Amino acid sequence: MVELILAALVILAGAFLFSFLRAKRKISRMQAELSRAWQELSQAMAARVSALEELASALRASGYVSEGEPKLRKAIEELRRFGLNPRELAEAHERVEAVLRGIYRALPREREERVKVAQNRLAEADEELDLRKNRYNELVLSWYEISRRFPFRLLMRKIARPEPFALPGEEEALLRRHL
Fold first, then answer.
1. Hey, is 163 helix, strand or coil?
2. What is the predicted pLDDT for the residue at 40?
3. pLDDT at 79 over 60
4. Do 41 and 132 meet the contact criterion of CB atoms below 8 Å apart?
5. How far apart are CA 145 and CA 5, in angstroms?
6. Checking phi first, is residue 12 left (phi over 0); if not, alpha (psi -120 to 50) or beta?
7. Are the C-beta atoms of residues 78 and 109 closer than 8 Å to each other?
8. pTM for the complete prediction?
9. Are 74 and 68 in contact (CB under 8 A)?
10. CB-based contact 144:176 (threshold 8 Å)
11. How many CB atoms sit inside 10 A of residue 20's CB?
């Protein structure tokens, strides 16, 4: 009888050990995926900043929206400054979007070709950024979901939680929708 109890305890201990090792491997894979996704997001943001600068130059050369171009340059500088924190980057991104909305409203219907090309390049950069942002946010939400499970909860206590690339109000809605 004692041997049977000891065998059951050894099997349970082995199962717990296996579970923790598997969870640890999964956590390290998720961290690597998050790191890659953030790097891709940063590259997409750099491409967008480049497209924004091209648009600002095209606006200046064309003489369109002369009061909007300095605001756009200032917003681009803020976007560059907040390159490491997802929440601050999302807020700076939103400020750029507000400036762009004002500029687009003030543009004439018939524009120079240079401005059209710059707008198209910016649209392509925005699409790429959206794809990368969604992928990164999916991984962050998966991280949150996994961190609530048993072995992961114990192992992830000491690991900093990644933040989604979203504004504070959007973050809560994103979490509610996913979880």
1. coil
2. 93
3. yes
4. yes
5. 35
6. alpha
7. no
8. 0.76
9. no
10. no
11. 15
